[in-house]
Amino acid sequence: MSANNIAISVTDLHKSFGELKAVQGVSFQVQRGEIFSLLGPNGAGKTTTISILSTLLRPDQGDAQVMGHSIRRDPMQVKSVLGVVPQEIALYEDLTARENLDFWGKMYGLRGAALRQRVQEVLEIIGLADRANGRVGKFSGGMKRRVNIGVALLHKPQVIYMDEPTVGIDPQSRRNILDSVVALKNQGMTVLYTTHYMEEAQELSDHIAIMDRGKLIAGGTNAELVQLVGEQTRIDLTLTVEASRVLPIWRAVEGVAHVSAEDGRVTVLVADSNLVLPRLFESATRLAARITSVDIREPNLEAVFLHLTGRALRD
Amino acid sequence: MIRILDIASKDLLQLLRDPKTFMFLLIMPIAFTLLFGFAFGGFSGGASDTRLPVGFLDQDSSRLSKRLRDLFAESDIIRLNVTTRAPADLEELVAEGKLAGAIIVPNGYGRSLLVNKSARLTLIADKGTRATTTVEAEVIAVAGRLDSAVRTATIIEQTIGNRAPFQYALEQSLAAWKNPPIAVTETTSTIVKAEKKSNQSASLAHTSPGMMLQFAIAGLLTAAQIIVAERKSRSLQRLLTTATNRLHILLGHYLAIFTLIFSQFIALVLFGGLILRVDYARAPGAILIVAASAALCIAALGLLIGVLAKTDEQAVTFSLVPMFLLSGLGGAWVPLEVTGETFQTIGHLSPVAWAMDGFKNISIRGLGIESVALPALALLGYAGLFFALASWRFSTNEER
User: How far apart are CA B90 and CA B363, in angstroms?
Assistant: First the structure.
């Protein structure tokens, strides 16, 4: 990565709250125009990291550059290039959507005709132009989330931080938000995205950093992370015969790394499910056994997290 | 700097949309001003009459005894309670304190006056009390006036005959008492003049600023809740991710609360002056100074409450406790003037006491603009203290 291509560069960040070490030596780089996800369970230190990068919290140690500005030395410059979407609905519920955007636009330094025009643009981007004069307090969770994101877009920031923006909303609103994140990237914005939803990180991210207990435990593209831990495809099957009858046969099938049975379900770990699955069907047929269900699970970040920490991501 | 105005405008918009704002800032102070005004001053003529109640039993029923009754009825000291009860009943009423005294005009009183004999009245009173001394002095003065007038009329009638009949001369003599050729003009300071107003006016002049101040503090609840909600929703943190610094945020909130309270004061001063006839108009500049400094002080207190409270429940507690404490201690309910010196000193630990002094120096004591300098300075001192505490707490709430 060339220095000119770096939007965010984080070096050895540390932050403690009393005895709690919330962030311990976190370092990573985010390229311009990419979506970079911080993935980790609740309490991993994602929000603290975002708060430090937003200049809300002062790091105990370390520094970060946002579009070349140090969070320690030039916090106002950092703020001017940033848009922040907090995890909470950080809006005034007794104001309308337009009044909220108008107020926040002023806080970002917009005035007059430029402000009015940008507010209207953002209302259209978030799909709430027809509800502009409705009070935010009366909106659904998904609509509030959209206004929450809209606020961060008002001043056309170069970098946008989104802290768990899909928490607690319906699937349709979630889909809209994920699509809008991709749209922001397509407009050239750099997105730093935190989530504890593995699927979101996988779908959106160019690069992912996995955080746990204040530390970065792995980083790279989705493929790199999966390969990093050598995870295999998991195939869960149910049969019309006792699992014990097929176990010794399937263990001998070429390409099968591991076979186990639990509660009548057989789990097979393989390197390539396309090659192995036909062989499993063939051997089952020879035993006069019928396979009644197949569930193929490609290696994913959940498995990576489990592999690295011994805990599930949602624990 | 313009962000301060933006934040203040946003806060005011939120406050004006909250029905509680009008409840606390206008409706309740007006209602309680009327309630307290009624309770302490009353609205009936009788209740506002400060003259001493004195019974009057006329056993003579002569022309002169009736004239004597009329003279007592005109008294500024005695409020005559004409009765036909027996003297024993009157003694009982005086003993019970229901009457400050009772005058009995004995049979033959008028005839004695006309024949130039000593005419005696009977006064039933509780000896040794200040009220008795006052009533006694007034009875002597009024009776003496009638006696002199009768003597003068008698002499005139005897001297010039029918050209000046007795009745005419008597009335002229009595009228002359009202406009004596030599008179001592009693100059009373405006303070005393103001205090001579009816109880009702004095009571409203006290309760009007008292309730205004009390509910200005109570109204801080809505302002504090806006700051609490801003922090809870993380809007405050979001504000801090913009290029808006902490002091501007604090000043924006402060300006909004000040504007609200100052507007409330102006509205209630106008209500007090125009409807309740409280004499705020005597020195409008001084009233503005007191209102502005009190609003600055209370707004700073509101800011401190908003910064300290972490929940809506805390905002309620932090608003209502100072409302009761500062209002009660500062004499918003009961005038500090009727308390002892020690309590008055303690009471002035409350900024409400200084604000009350400022308002009452104008509306009750009739003093000039210089009289509000000390109260205004004290209020500004409290404003500075509260703002400094709020600012310190605000900066330590978040690390940066």
Answer: 41
* Predicted ipTM beyond 0.95: no
Residue ranges per structural domain of chain B:
2-43+198-397, 52-190
Between B48 and A119, the more confident residue is A119
What is the extent of the structural domain holding A176? 3-221
**Residue-level pLDDT at B50:** 63
- The span from the CA of B274 to the CA of B204, in Å, is 12
CA distance B206 to B31: 14
Contact A90 B399 (CB under 8 A): no
Q: What is the pLDDT of residues B21-37, one digit of tens each?
A: 777 777 777 777 777 76
Query: Are the Cβ atoms of A95 and B6 closer than 8 angstroms?
Result: no
The reply to whether A26 and A170 lie within a common domain is: yes
One domain, residues A188 and A275: no
pLDDT of residue B201: 62
Residue A93: pLDDT band (50, 70, 90) is: very high
CATH number at residue A197: 3.40.50.300
Contact B243 A88 (CB under 8 A): no
User: Which of B1, B225, B235, B248 to probe by mutation at the A interface, max A CB count within 10 Å?
Assistant: B235
Q: Cα separation of A110 and B81, whole Å?
A: 78
Query: For the segment A259-284, what is each residue's pLDDT rounded down to a tens digit?
Result: 888 777 888 888 888 899 999 999 99
CATH number of the domain bearing residue A280:
3.30.70.100
Domain B52-190 has CATH 3.10.20.30: no
Cβ separation B237–A95 shorter than 8 A: no
A106 and B400 within 8 Å at the Cβ level: the answer is: no
How much is the pLDDT for A60? 94
**Domain identity same for A150 and A264:** no
Per-residue confidence (pLDDT) for residue B370, from 0 to 100: 83
Q: Is residue A49 part of a domain?
A: yes
Chain B touched by A138 (CB under 8 Å) = no
- Residue B360: closest CA among B276, B289, B287: B287
If asked whether residues A164 and A288 sit together in one domain, one would say no
Q: Based on the domain organization, do A83 and A190 belong to the same domain? A: yes
Chain B CB within 8 Å of residue A63 CB: no
pLDDT, residue B184, reads 52
- Our CA-based measurement puts residue A191 at a distance from the nearest CA of chain B, in whole angstroms, of 16
State how far the alpha carbon of B264 is from the alpha carbons of A120, B254, B330, in Å.
36, 15, 19
Mutation site, A92, A93, A102, A139, interface B, largest B CB count within 10 A: A92
Torsion over CA: B242, B244, B245, B246 (sign): negative
Q: For position B185, what pLDDT does the model report?
A: 52
Rounded to a whole number, what is the distance in Å from the CA of B319 to chain A's nearest CA? Answer: 22
* One domain, residues A183 and A278: no
Report how far residue B45's alpha carbon sits from residue B115's, in angstroms, rounded to the nearest whole number.
Answer: 41
A22 and A46 belong to one structural domain: yes
- CA nearest neighbour of A83 among A162, A4, A26: A162
| Cβ-defined contact of A54 to B241 (cutoff 8 Å) | yes
Q: Which residues of chain B have pLDDT under 50?
A: 42-48, 188-197, 399-400
Count: domains in chain A: 2
CB distance B238–A84 less than 8 Å?
yes
Predicted pLDDT of residue A208 = 93
Mean pLDDT, residues A232-255: 88
Is B400's CB within 8 Å of A57's CB? yes
Residue A179 CB: number of other CB atoms within 10 A? Answer: 11
Residue B233: which of A54, A88, A99 has the nearest Cβ? A88
